[in-house]
Design brief:
Layout (H helix, E strand, L loop, with lengths): L2 H9 L8 H9 L2 H12 L37 H10 L4 H19 L2 E4 L1 H16 L11 E5 L26 H8 L3 E6 L19 E2 L2 E5 L5 H8 L6 E5 L5 H7 L2 E4 L19 E6 L2 H11 L29 E5 L11 H16 L3 E5 L3 H27 L6 H10 L6 H17 L7 E4 L19 H6 L3 E8 L5 E8 L4 H15 L8
Parallel strand pairs: 2-3, 2-6, 9-10, 9-11
Antiparallel strand pairs: 1-3, 4-5, 6-8, 7-8, 7-12, 11-13, 12-13
Protein name: Asp-tRNA(Asn)/Glu-tRNA(Gln) amidotransferase GatCAB subunit A
Keywords: Transferase
Pfam families: Amidase (PF01425)
Amino acid sequence: MSLADRLCANLRPLGITISDEDVAGIEALGFLSRLADFERITATMPHAMPPDYLDAASLPVAPPETTATVWPSDPPADTLLGVAAQLHAGALSPIELTEAALQRLANLDPQLNAFQLVLAEQALADARRATAELAAGQQRGPLHGVPVAVKDLFDMTGLPTTAGSPMCADNIAHDDATLVARLREAGAVIIGKTRLSEFAYSPGSNNPHYGPVANPYDQTRDAGGSSSGSAAAVATGIAYTALGTDTGCSIRIPAAFCGIVGLKATWGRTSLAGAVPLAWSLDHGGALVRSVADAALMLALLAGPDQRDGRTLRAVPPFMPGELAGGVRGLRVGLLNDDGSGKPMADAAQLGAARQAAAALASAGAEVLELPMPQLDSLRVIGAAIAGLEAAAFHQPWMQTRLHDYGPFMRQRLLAACAYGPGAFIRAQQARAALRRDAATIFAQVDILIGPIHPGPVPALGVPANNGLAIPINCLGWPALTLPVDLGSDGMPLAAHLIAAPWHEALLLRAAYVVEQARGRFTKPLD
């Protein structure tokens, strides 16, 4: 039986009829060839192997950070830390800042399409309250009065959470998502909810319902996905930070394409309660920001256990940034040169960006060695399989009743997952366990890994990116960060991908800070 025939046969018991057009689309997008790769890989896995559900035994606990937190002095004025310092010193008021953010949004969003919902009236009311509180010496937190944005995958009380689909246009939230609540507790002024690909299931901004999000550096190019609007809003200075999610690249690739910083912490470090899931064992929540120090600040605010999300309830030390400027002398850095695919990991420009980051660390006293990580090729296949199987499980009720309310790309991705046979999810978790065990041995040689985040140039507007270098890290659950290191010959940002062992975000951020200081930050596009 062909894979296409198997797909059709598997859908019949669910009462789902697939069209010839969708079968052809699934084949053209290569989804069935990924299934063939999956079955090739899992055929070598012993059936008696315990599967990996990312449980308490899966991610070893790091020792707590013992260095006191020291924030950089005199942060740039256009960063989160910089503007917060100005607000708290009285040099700026939240009202001025919020009015400027809303004006910038009005001026730029017709070019970007970054916002799903603008909350101007509420934001101004919150800014007036923050102004009065700060004038009275009441400081609620480090984001007090700072304009921020929220990916429209997170619930906000009384507002719709569309998840990028009109199917959810009437989905009015009764509570704030935990990460939204933590923004509010820190005093943030939320100016709007940002656009994303349909149900966050694309590495691009492609969305047939609400349109794609343009890249701030070139509006004929894509902002990346799925946290597309969040990346564009932060890169252009509309918001100082924005919430995002990352299931297979969705914080890191948009950040890379838009020339900002995106951190995906260790799986379970941040809560996803109140966020629409894509794939429970791959989903990560976090923030997109303009500097490494801002990334550290946001993780310190967002991280921590949450009774609403059992993934966060492990007995791990709380995240503490330590001293970002503590240096990297003696750090062992692995520059990845082989992903096991038998092909170059990326084009010359992307590989060059990774090399520039490694060179910056070497100049600061780190030891750099090139080494392969051949598990990456299999991890991308297993990660894609897990994403599809978990997404199809979540969406099955709608697939049975509202199949053609999905856009073609989303519909075909979900349908393709139904071609996997019985037991495929368990086999995927067995493969994940073996690959995680093998991959983790790399940290006996190095402390930090560096590689490219994308194999080639930023795609055209509405064209999905290739997340093959990003999703393996979701499958592993390790922390990873992208930051800009250069501009390419086409004027687009080039980024490096830094990866650390579980729970070692402080080390990851310290290394990224060194790279940022050496390579510099980029000015806001569209100024």
